[in-house]
Amino acid sequence: AVLGTVHLLFALLAVLFSALVASSIHIAQEWERIVVLRLGKFNRIAGPGLFLTIPFIESCAIRVDQRIRITSLKAEETLTADLVPVDVNAVMYWMVWGVREACFEVLDFNLAVENAGQAALRDAIGRSTAAEIVLRREQLDSQLQEKLENQVDQWGVTIILVSLIDIVVPKSLQDTMSSEAQAEQRSKARIALAESERSIF
């Protein structure tokens, strides 16, 4: 009976030891970084590959994917500076470069970046006229990217690209904007012609 009890005790200890070893072994993928806390305080960034933690003392707080992410942004019936309601769809490419900041500076960096993008898009539309949004979308892209970069940098996030992919204006204004665009192209053509003539003479 005593021998059986000893064997059972050793079996239980072996199971417990195996569970502790298994809980201390972790694997991070090539694109992942993991924040490790020791007794609730920041200790290190682990990964990629195999790494170990001390059971009951260290814990993995967050697993962060550092690949480029794509977020769709929408602004429906948003008023421009000249009070024209427009629908704008944009796409934002971004990634996490500062894993520690993403973990500690904001509760949910995914939601925070998406909300910041939505707010920046609506603000940019409100500061521009309908014609400026349609005819100078590349300039608006750059302004959006710069504003977002300044805002999300503190969260360990970088904005790679912001691009407007669809702009819908009321049909009543489409002909007017088309005429304005044609007039602007004719003006540029006249300026180019005048400069070429001046260079010849």
List keywords for this structure.
6 helices, 49% helix, 3-stranded antiparallel β-sheet, alpha+beta, 32% strand, 201 residues
Report the sheet-strand fraction: 25-35%
Total count of strands:
8
* Biggest beta sheet attributes: 3 strands, antiparallel
* Contiguous uncertain segments of 5+ residues: none
Tell me briefly what this model is.
With 201 residues, the chain is of the alpha+beta class. It has helices at 2-24, 99-104, 109-126, 130-135, 137-152, 171-200, and strands at residues 25-28, 32-38, 41-46, 49-52, 58-65, 69-79, 85-96, 157-168.
Describe the model.
- By secondary structure, the protein is of the alpha+beta class.
- Helix content is 49%, strand content 32%.
- The chain has six helices and eight strands, in the order H-E-E-E-E-E-E-E-H-H-H-H-E-H.
- The strands form three sheets. It has a three-stranded antiparallel beta sheet. It has a three-stranded antiparallel beta sheet with strand order 6-7-8. A two-stranded antiparallel sheet has the order 1-4.
- Helix 3 (109-126) packs across helix 5 (137-152).
- It is elongated, with a radius of gyration of 28 Å.
- It starts with a helix and ends with a helix.
- The model has no long low-confidence stretch (mean pLDDT 85).
